[in-house]
Amino acid sequence: MTDAQIQNADQADLDPFYYGRRQVIRYDRTGQPSYTYLPLTATDFLDPQAGDEFVQTAQHDADVRTLRAIFQHLHRFNPAIGVLSHIKLIWPSAGLAQPAPDLAIFPEMSDPDRQRTVFNVREEGTTPSFVLEVVSPRFATADLEQKVAIYQQAGVQEYFIIDAGWHEGQAEQTPPVYQVFGYQLQTGVYLALAPDAQGRVYSAVNKLWIGPTPARDSFVVIDARTQQPITPAAEREEPVAAAYAEAANRARSLAEQLDFLRL
After folding, report:
1. In the CATH hierarchy, which fold is given to the domain comprising 57-262?
2. Closest CA to 240 of 20, 62, 35, 68
3. Model confidence pLDDT, tens digit, residues 31-57
4. Which of 28, 38, 107, 156 is the most exposed place for a label (fewest CB within 10 A)?
5. Are the CB atoms for 210 and 201 separated by under 8 Å?
């Protein structure tokens, strides 16, 4: 057990809703619902259920929204490619954890605009070719280590990780220091992709580079064909300040509700 895992376990002992909550609805004989909440565990993060709410940071949520807009813009002219976020993946392999990645790219996807709550790989007939996770401070071990094994076994061609350096006890208390990690599947095994001199890692699936800004206070996605940063179209782009504010409000709202449950 790593030091971070031990610290997380200690925090969870003090705060049952440290990782998040799961809403449970029960109905009485008259059909009237009652609502209760169950605390989540670190294991639940690797295999979430519908309605699970995990404690994230506002910066994490804002980064995910920015990335989703970038990849939607990148693949906007290919109707067969799906760009999904936070959709639980149902693998054909029994016993393999089924996470809901921050971003997943699906080739040859039927009706990519259809709303989904889960993505059943066997029924949909396509496996994600690219998965990207933004490290969650309370779940850093899962993003950086455990999911590597999951996505490798599932046959995901590339797995990328954006890490702001905020791990347990550091989230939003120190300036971020971004770095990017990438893995590519070769003969069934993930090989780590070496970054270039600027710390950027190349994605052959998407034909782009992902890396930190020169100051390492954020990240940048660069089109390998133009060598220019990818900027989402205006109609799909959400101002960073607005995205961060909305993410902060959601995080604060969840925190307030969890505080109420602890009373």
Report:
1. tt1808, chain A (3.90.1570)
2. 62
3. 899 888 999 999 999 999 988 999 999
4. 28
5. yes
